[in-house]
């Protein structure tokens, strides 16, 4: 929920060139080439493949990138995470994408009511689009409407069970509601979906220790 990468679209293509351009192979020129490169022994080739899929694929292609969240290369894992956010945020409808962008701008400016209105229109027009629910869940959390945010996170997970943003978001909501056991459960689910969530991993350790201390004090 709260891990949206607003600048992914602009940065994803740039990072491959900027970080190590001379060492990178030529980008795939077709879907077939990208699928082949995704299985390459070379990390740079896998990263290029992820970049191609993220920029040319659809929501259905998320299944191709999710295994790369556990890639042996940290670099490749970071591209897989960014690539998933990019795929999840692509509705395939210019009008919906415009509403999403406007709603996100309103949210970032702290105009929560307007943002909720924009995302509600997205949900009305495209109830199957999980990211519409996720953005509204995010702004509802920011507005302190935790129960409504929980309901929207649940709608995200009905459509995209592996949405680690919504899973982590539920952890943050239950933490805000002072329900640490539930928060811990959701943070663990988020880390299972995406083992690269360092902030979530830290939260798990802190909650485990806090609950352990609480049990010790009660005995």
How confident overall, as mean pLDDT? 91
Strand proportion, as a percent range, falls in under 5%
Computed Rg = 19 Å
Spatial gap, N to C terminus: 37 Å
Number of self-contained structural domains: 3
**Structural class of the helices, strands and pairings?**
mainly alpha
Written as H for each helix and E for each strand, in order along the chain, the element string is HHHHHHHHHHHH
Tertiary shape: flat
Low-confidence stretches: 3-22
Per DSSP, the total helix count is 12
Question: Total number of β-strand segments?
Answer: 0
Question: What percentage of residues falls in helices of 4 or more residues?
Answer: over 70%
User: What characterizes the major β-sheet?
Assistant: none
What does this structure look like?
- By secondary structure, this protein is mostly helical.
- The protein has three domains: 8-88, no CATH class; 92-145; 162-219, no CATH class.
- The protein has helices spanning 8-20, 31-37, 43-56, 62-65, 74-88, 94-108, 112-125, 130-142, 146-159, 164-176, 180-193, 198-218.
- The two termini are 37 Å apart.
Please describe the structure with a list of short key phrases separated by commas or semicolons:
single chain; 219 residues; mainly alpha; flat; disordered N terminus
Give the secondary structure arrangement, pairings included.
Elements: H1 8-20, H2 31-37, H3 43-56, H4 62-65, H5 74-88, H6 94-108, H7 112-125, H8 130-142, H9 146-159, H10 164-176, H11 180-193, H12 198-218
Helix pairs in contact: 1-3, 2-3, 3-5, 6-7, 7-8, 8-9, 8-10, 9-10, 10-11, 11-12
């Amino acid at each position: 929920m709260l891990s949206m990468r607003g600048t992914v679209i602009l940065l994803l293509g740039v990072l491959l060139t900027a970080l190590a351009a001379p060492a990178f192979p030529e980008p795939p020129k077709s879907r077939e080439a990208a699928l082949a490169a995704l299985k390459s022994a070379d990390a740079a080739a896998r990263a290029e493949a992820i970049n191609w899929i993220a920029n040319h694929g659809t929501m259905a292609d998320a299944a191709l990138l999710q295994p790369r969240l556990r890639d042996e290369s940290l670099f490749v894992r970071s591209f897989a995470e960014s690539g998933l956010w990019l795929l999840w945020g692509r509705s395939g409808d210019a009008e919906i994408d415009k509403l999403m962008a406007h709603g996100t701008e309103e949210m970032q400016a702290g105009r929560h009511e307007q943002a909720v209105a924009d995302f509600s229109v997205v949900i009305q027009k495209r109830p199957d689009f999980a990211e519409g629910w996720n953005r509204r869940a995010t702004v509802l959390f920011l507005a302190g409407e935790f129960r409504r945010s929980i309901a929207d996170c649940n709608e995200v997970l009905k459509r995209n069970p592996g949405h680690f943003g919504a899973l982590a978001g539920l952890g943050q909501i239950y933490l805000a509601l002072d329900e640490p056991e539930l928060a811990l459960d959701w943070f663990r689910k988020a880390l299972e979906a995406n083992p690269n969530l360092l902030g979530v991993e830290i939260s798990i350790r802190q909650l485990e220790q806090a609950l352990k201390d609480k049990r010790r004090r009660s005995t």
